[in-house]
Automatic annotation (TrEMBL):
Keyword presence, Oxidoreductase: yes
Pfam families (alphabetical): NMO (PF03060)
Species in which this protein is naturally found: Sordaria brevicollis
InterPro entries tied to this protein: Aldolase_TIM, NMO
Keywords recorded for this protein, A-Z: Flavoprotein, FMN, Oxidoreductase
Identification of the protein by name: Inosine monophosphate dehydrogenase
Record GO terms (molecular function): nitronate monooxygenase activity
Keyword Flavoprotein appears in the UniProt entry: yes
Amino acid sequence: MPLQTELTRRLGITVPVVQGGMQHVGTAELASAVSNAGGLGIITALIWPEPEGLRQEIRKCKKLTTRPFAVNITLLPALVPPDYEAYAQVVIDEGIKIVETAGNSPGPVISKLKKAGVIILHKCTTIRHAQSAVKLGVDFLSIDGFECAGHVGESDITNFILLSKARQTLNVPFIASGGFADGQGLAAALMLGACGVNMGTRFLCTVEAPIHHNIKEAIVKAQETDTALVLRRWRNTTRLFKNKVVKDALKVERESKTGEFSEIAPYVSGKRGKEVFINGDPEYGVWTAGQVMGLINDIPTCKDLVTRIEKEAEETIKDKLKLFAAPSKL
């Protein structure tokens, strides 16, 4: 029996699983594969330096799937910020009805999208930020625990607490993000009050993910201890795969006398991180990965993965219902 939640009903998907918006990875190939599997695939807008590139990728995705998919627009600090509203306009022009937002000061973009009838999923790492997003009119919150890959926030609150706090305090449906890879995790998230899960690293390690096979193998071999947090000194804490470059960056971060970001910048170059996914050398540059690597043991297709997660979640929930068996008569 399909798992039906607020997420599946409102988004028109069949399994309450969302593919995280990932830089360099959230392309039409991956997004369409997740959507065709019954989840919600997401194209990452800022992979393309100009909005027109996003337009072409959306059109490509429409040829690969007839099912709903979304676009991620993440607003991050930059000396020369992208034209976020132009990306939002492309989303509207192309008839996309679901957008995942994240980052700083998303109000103007969210307002523009809401006026066009777009459903907004907004990612937050704290309840305080989630409450602010609710005031902006978001439809769903994606609650990111400290376990997650990439930007973890500065509060270090793990999902077991964060999700329960969300259940107690929020009046908007929420998705659990960070640390999810299987159906048991989905079942746990549903029990804690979530209406689905968001997975990034797990979808990074699938057949359709547009990265070198060596990186997928590195994820399979990794343990939950193989990540590191960098850039805390600059209040931009980021969870990355623990390789030599990351270790060197941490040394600079600890030992810098000036605290100038320019000292660490060469180590955390996004350009080198992108090359990792192309050349297949996990030591070449920094790349994001979550602690959930310790739970990932294979490289399935998106279809096989989503089907397996749905089956595991259903079996787990049914099994736990046996705890309510009638007491035996003495």
